[in-house]
Amino acid sequence: MGSVHEYKRLENKLVQKVGGAVNVTICFIFSVLKAFWKFLTRRYTLVFVPHSEKRVYNLHITVLSVFCFVLVTVCIFGAFFWYGASYSGTISTIANKDGRLKDTQASLDQLRDETVLLLREARNFENALSGVLSALGLGTTNTTSQNTSGDLSSFLGIRETPDGLLREVDDVRRLSAYLSQAVGPIKEIGTILDSQSALLTEIPSVWPVRGGIGNITMFFGQNINPINGQYYIHRGIDISTHRSGDSVVAAADGQVVTVDYTWDFGNYIIIRHKHGYYTRYAHLQNFRARIGQRVQQNEVIGYIGNTGVSTGPHLHYEVHIGSDVVDPYRYITMRSSMIKQGR
Questions:
Q1: Are 230 and 224 in contact (CB under 8 A)?
Q2: What's the pLDDT at 244?
Q3: CA–CA separation, 333 vs 315, rounded Å?
Q4: Beta bridge partners of 176
Q5: How many Cβ atoms sit within 10 Å of the Cβ of residue 219?
Q6: What is the tens place of the pLDDT at every residue in 66-91?
Q7: Number of helices (H) and strands (E), helices first, in the chain?
Q8: How far apart are CA 103 and CA 150, in angstroms?
Q9: Phi and psi of 319, rounded to 5°?
Q10: In what helix (H) or strand (E) does residue 166 lie, and over which residues does it extend?
Q11: What is the spatial distance between Cα 171 and Cα 159, in angstroms, rounded to a whole number?
Q12: Cβ(253)–Cβ(273) under 8 Å?
């Protein structure tokens, strides 16, 4: 029990000391604030004495009013400088954006010019495509207008804005739609050209001397025989390069069926092609193909010579359809004729 009372006494003393310290502190703070407030509210009088007999002016001020005046003045000047700096930054930003706007306007003008050129080239493309489709019997696309006056606005149905400027986005969109619809006919043209190319490799349609060299020295049909001077029917064409050894090529894909020698043709080769075609290559110096070999168009099969009944180095070239002999020149010029028609 004695120890408990001792603890209680110590606790009460501690509480009294803490309370006293808090009271002292509060009183000190209060006295400081009171002194500071007295300092702020201390009145001063400014006397304005004129250099004449006029009335003397007295201005009563306090430290607090001076402090508020200085604070307001500093805020005003600070705001002024802040707004001035902000205004300068805004002007710089506006100037920068104005420069970018001018660059964008220049790019837009260039885009408009390029759009006009694009539409002009599209017009040429449309005319060329229509011509090719007509030549191939495929008809024409229905996305273009029939007005041929050259007005680009009527070309793809382009509308104009009230100030007369073309709507570039609408132009490009319509042009894109036209090109999308033109893909189908172009694919049909590609299919036709592929089949045509395949057909041209199956019929004797190329010059039978490699590199396209040589001249025709005797055409198909009625001619004077250079040996006896009498008229006779020449069953092929004679091609001369004025020398021996130039390469002879297959006029079409096919299979070699004859590699032989006779007194009149000399060394000769016969190739069987599709669709009933046969070709003969005579007066060869020597052979490069063999019987049964499958050859491709423009593949070398032999070399120009002067064997058999011949007055000089040349190639005697024949084209047969079944048992009929036809003019080879008509087939040699077939490829160029088809290309011209395609144009």
A1: yes
A2: 95
A3: 18
A4: none
A5: 14
A6: 788 888 989 998 888 888 888 888 88
A7: 6, 14
A8: 32
A9: -125, 130
A10: none
A11: 9
A12: yes
